Amino acid sequence: MGTKAAPPARPFSVTSEVGTLRTVLLHRPGDELRRLTPRNNDQLLFDGIPWVERAQQEHDIFAGVLRERGVEVLLLADLLTETLAVSGAARIQGISGAVDARRLGHALADELAAHLRTVPAPELAQILMSGMTFDELPFGPDHHSLVVRMHHGHDFVIDPLPNLLFTRDSSFWVGPRVAITSLALRARMRETSLTDLIYAFHPRFLNVRRAYESHTAPIEGGDVLLLAKGVVAVGVGERTTPAGAEALARSLFEDDLAHTVLAVPIAQNRATMHLDTVCTMVDTDAVVMYPAIQDSLCAFTIHKEGDGTVSMHGPDPFLPAAAKAMGIGKLRVIDTGLDGVTAEREQWDDGNNTLAVAPGVVVAYERNEMTNARLADAGIEVLPIPGSELGSGRGGPRCMSCPLSRDEV
Question: Residue 77 above 80 pLDDT?
Answer without folding.
Answer: yes
